Amino acid sequence: MEFAISGVVINPVLLASIGFLVGILGGFFGVGGGFLVGPFMFWAGIPMNFVVGTDLAHMTGKSIVAARRHRSLGQVDTKLGLLMVIGTIPGVEIGARIIEALKQSDSVDVVIGIIYVVLLLIISSFTAYESLRALRMIRTDSLDVKDALGFHGIVQRAYGVQLPPMVSFPASGIQSVSVWLVLGVGLITGILAGTLGVGGGFVRMPLMVYVLGIPTHVAVGTDLFEIMISAGFGTLTHAIKGNVDILMALIMHTGAALGAQIGAVSTRFFVGPKIRLLFSILPFLGAVLVLVRLITGSMIHF
Amino acid sequence: MNHKPQFSLPVLVRNLIVELVVYAVMVVVYFLVVLKYLESPLKQLFVGNLPVYALASVGLIVIQGVMLDYFVSFLFKRLGLPRFE
């Protein structure tokens, strides 16, 4: 089927299937899954500017369902999510303008592709290392899983940033943290979202856990809540710039909506470090997909 | 403390299979009917009026998100299946 808006020919059933798979992963890990959908869409021959905008659109719809599920499980810190959005929205706009500048110079595919690869490999390595450390701590020290954070020192240093105003997040068990830290997390992930077309969760969730010290299950739900808002704004600004094929997004979302619900309830079966360890595989897979396309120029034709 | 599942695996699998089958049927109908009618007007908006296209895009994906979620909930109630939450 040819999608008239982006001019791309791709099988709609395949789009829905990819949406379904990524929906499961997204609901489970509390991420939008854009860092997998994006590389696949690019690999399938979709121009990177449409990858960015369309991915955000599909995640907007998907995150609504997943966030609702996590909220029903009591895993959403609404106060934290809304505060982060204040930082995320300007970041998304900055990212969208970066895409426009790259379009002007006809270098959007290469530049964004390289950024994808580097960032995904860093996230994968860091998360795998930390979660393995945490699992070792649980086994050897009989540490409660809620306390098993392989980089406890990072959280302590973050709390040492006493830059007012300070804010508490009772739903996450956080008594006092600088609001600038929260806004900074939002801004960084917003820029990533606007530039890479991802929800930012694959960065935001580790930042919430390792920097802010948010319990993993709350980080998962709150991240999805925040994605719902930031991806919506990202969809709007990218659509205005002509980077969204909404038909493609609607099709992907039909599969993702189902997968997200399955993924959300599955978090009840795993402890925090195990979730993080499994999570570390996903960015690595995304990096491989983008790297293959950049190096070989291979495209999937369906 | 480990989280222990508090549900029946057969129930979960049954829920999943039913949901998948119904969803597959719905999606095919959806593709054939709704998206075909949307294609032309959306293309015209994309070419002629991007701000309105942007609003329509956000509106469509949000509406679809809410509708799909309610549809699945309704489906499970009709089928008399408990949701695992």
Distinctive features:
heterodimer; A: 302 residues; mainly alpha; two-stranded antiparallel sheet; 12 helices; B: 85 residues; 0% strand; disordered N terminus
Descriptive overview:
The complex is a heterodimer of chains A (302) and B (85). Chain A is mostly helical and 302 residues long. Helix content of chain A is 73%, strand content 4%. Chain A is built from 12 helices and 4 strands, in the order E-E-H-H-H-H-H-H-E-E-H-H-H-H-H-H. Chain A has a two-stranded antiparallel sheet. In chain A, a hairpin with a 4-residue loop joins strand 1 (2-3) and strand 2 (8-9). In chain A, helix 4 (78-104) runs parallel beside helix 7 (179-196). The longest helix of chain A has 34 residues, at 108-141. Chain A is globular. The model of chain A is unreliable at 144-150 (pLDDT under 50). Chain B has 2 helices and no strands. Chain B has helices at residues 9-48, 50-79. In chain B, helix 1 (9-48) runs antiparallel to helix 2. The interface between A and B is large, with 44 and 39 residues.
Write the layout of secondary structure elements.
The complex is a heterodimer of chains A (302) and B (85).
Chain A (H helix, E strand, L loop, with lengths): L1 E2 L4 E2 L2 H18 L4 H10 L4 H25 L5 H27 L3 H34 L10 H8 L6 E4 L4 E5 H18 L4 H10 L5 H25 L5 H21 L5 H8 L1 H16 L6
Antiparallel strand pairs in A: 1-2, 3-4
Helix pairs in contact in A: 1-3, 1-10, 2-3, 2-12, 3-7, 3-9, 3-10, 4-7, 4-9, 5-11, 5-12, 7-8, 8-9
Chain B lengths: L8 H40 L1 H30 L6
Structural class, from helix and strand content of chain A?
mainly alpha
Low-confidence spans of chain A: pLDDT under 50, at least 5 residues?
Answer: 144-150
Which blocks of ≥5 consecutive residues of chain B have pLDDT under 50?
1-5
Please report the distance between the alpha carbons of the first and last residues of chain B: 20 Å
Rg on CA atoms of chain B, Å: 18 Å
Helix-strand topology string of chain A: EEHHHHHHEEHHHHHH
Structural class of chain B: mainly alpha
Beta-strand percentage of chain A? under 5%
**Helix and strand run of chain B:** HH
Give the largest interface pair and sizes. A-B, 44 and 39 residues
Total strands of chain A: 4
Report the helical percentage of chain A. Answer: over 70%
Strand order in the sheet with the most strands of chain A: 1-2
Query: Span between N and C termini of chain A?
Result: 9 Å
Mean pLDDT of chain A: 79
Q: Count of helices of chain A?
A: 12
Q: Report the strand count of chain B.
A: 0
Radius of gyration of chain A: 18 Å
